[in-house]
Amino acid sequence: MGCLLAARLAELDPIVAELTADRLAAAQILAPVRPLEFFHPLLGAAVQEDIAPGAHRMAHRRAAELLDREGEVSLPRIAAHLLACGPAGDPWVVQVLRAAAREAVASGAPESAARYLERGLQETPPPAVRAELLLELGEAQLQAGLPDATQRMREALELSTDPRRRAEMSMVLGRARYCTGDWAGAREAVRDGLAELPDEDDDLAHELQG
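Given the sequence above, the corresponding structure tokens read:
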């Protein structure tokens, strides 16, 4: 952790934080390096164990907020803190985790994306947002070869109320079922999607028919 971030977390003046870090290094509690790290891993483990669970989660949340304000910090670094903090029904947390999940999928790490999205669901977002999270989770799980991918997609469909979006989700579900060898289920999903569209000349309808 950088000394400036540690200072903000501890609500200390940056100069005071730097001098304090030097004193802790002289006492062989911290290593004499930047970013900050403990002199020995056992010391770090002891400090972690001494922090109450609630305070630990709050510190991670605060760290995520501070890192996000810096604007140049990687999403995985921010998301790592959000994975360690407790849910609070915060739309910002969901937004960050979804962005981190998209980046993880694009970089070939769907397992990480699935973890981010599962954590986002713990924030109990409204039904429309929850539906999108479930769909994205299902797609990430499918790419990662994890179980229950199509189940998450079905849950997304059940929550969605917009007919066109339901048709789009049905197409995603149909492709997922096809990829898993469930051809009958794929055909059913596509037919359900077509039923959501009143206009047979709609481009989406043509894609579903294809």
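The CA atoms of residues 102 and 113 lie 7 Å apart. Try to locate this feature in the token string yourself.
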